[in-house]
Amino acid sequence: MALSYDISVRLDPEYPVPGGWVDVVAELTNVTGEVRYVQASVVGWDFYLTLQRSGDNRFTARVHVPWETDPGVYQVSVWGVSFSGESGPRSQISVTVKPR
Question: Is the pLDDT confidence value at 1 over 80?
Answer without folding.
Answer: no
